[in-house]
Design a protein that fits this description.
Blueprint: E1 3-11, E2 19-27, E3 32-36, H1 38-44, H2 50-65, H3 89-97, E4 104-105, E5 109-111, H4 117-127, H5 143-155, E6 160-165, E7 177-184, E8 188-193, H6 200-221, E9 226-231, H7 240-251, E10 256-259, H8 264-272, E11 276-277
Parallel strand pairs: 8-9, 9-10
Antiparallel strand pairs: 1-2, 1-4, 1-5, 2-3, 6-7, 7-8, 7-11
Helix pairs in contact: 5-8
Length: 286
């Protein structure tokens, strides 16, 4: 298969004449890599509104995690074909002509090279920015997309999916926190997916954020909630520090660890305990 890449830009003006590269997609139709420049994203935070920056961050996260099962690509909200058919030159050529006023895609370019981290890094540093010392994010069948596929459709009527909770929701919460799902049945029921093979610093940050969220909720409501953490055991040989952290998590009583292969545990709990969405849902008729 031919390998192609497309640069992701942030437009800085309403006429789209000024733009800054913030990421890149590389694919051969079967395997794909996507990456965003954190230093550049931090820099643009000072030149766009806080609301737009928040939307941008959420959009990029969805773009990296999104899979075809949800039939959309981030906020483009387009109907797509079955597994991975959207990752092709024609579609990215279309995205190059389409604008959602948030990001832009360059016309896809063919390259005579295999898709691997080294080749991706070379192109990324040429067209975007220097490559930080961590593995590029694979957007195909990541643990996040697997949880979406296996669990979300089974619990979506009972919880709110992928929401940001703030101090206005729980008074003890200091900073906003993104959670994968949240519901209630007299107590708060929430869950988060954690990638245990990401860089250890980022792994610790994600874990601390969710545990802090759970404590803030319990303090705010003066009651103990139910908190699920979905993950997968990392290789002890390849990720020794991450494996130690994983072991600490499964032995902890702060959250209930659920292996990726056992997400039906969460589904069964939510249904048997009559969990309902924590936040009111807006009906389609409104």
């Amino acid at each position: 298969m031919k390998t192609f890449f497309s640069i992701i830009y942030l437009p800085l003006g309403s006429d789209f004449q000024e733009k800054i590269s913030i990421g890149m997609v590389m694919s051969n139709g079967a395997d794909s890599l996507i990456r965003f420049s954190n230093p550049k994203l931090s820099a643009v935070k000072n030149i766009i509104s806080s609301d737009k920056y928040s939307i941008l961050k959420n959009y990029l996260k969805n773009l990296a995690d999104e899979t075809i099962e949800n039939n959309k690509l981030g906020q483009f909200n387009l109907n797509l074909n079955s597994s991975n058919n959207w990752i092709n030159e024609e579609y990215f050529s279309y995205l190059n002509r389409y604008s959602n006023n948030l990001v832009m895609f360059s016309e896809p370019r063919n390259v005579d090279m295999n898709i691997d981290i080294n080749n991706f890094k070379s192109l990324f540093e040429k067209f975007v920015f220097y490559f930080e010392d961590e593995t590029a994010q694979k957007n195909l069948d990541s643990i996040y997309s697997q949880v979406k596929r296996r669990l979300y459709s089974k619990i979506e009527d009972n919880v709110n999916l992928n929401v940001t909770v703030r101090s206005s929701d729980f008074r003890e919460l200091i900073t906003p926190v993104d959670v994968n799902f949240i519901g209630k049945n007299g107590i708060v029921v929430a869950g988060q997916t954690i990638d245990f093979v990401k860089r250890h610093y980022n792994l610790e940050h994600d874990l601390t954020s969710f545990v802090s969220f759970s404590k803030a909720v319990d303090y705010s409501r003066n009651d103990k909630g139910k908190y699920f953490l979905v993950g997968e055991e990392p290789s002890k040989k390849e990720h020794p520090k991450n494996h130690r952290t994983w072991k600490q998590v499964i032995e902890s009583h702060l959250v209930e660890y659920v292996d990726l292969s056992e997400t039906e545990i969460i589904q069964d709990y939510i249904r048997s305990k009559s969990v309902t969405p924590f936040f009111d849902k807006i009906s389609d008729s409104e």
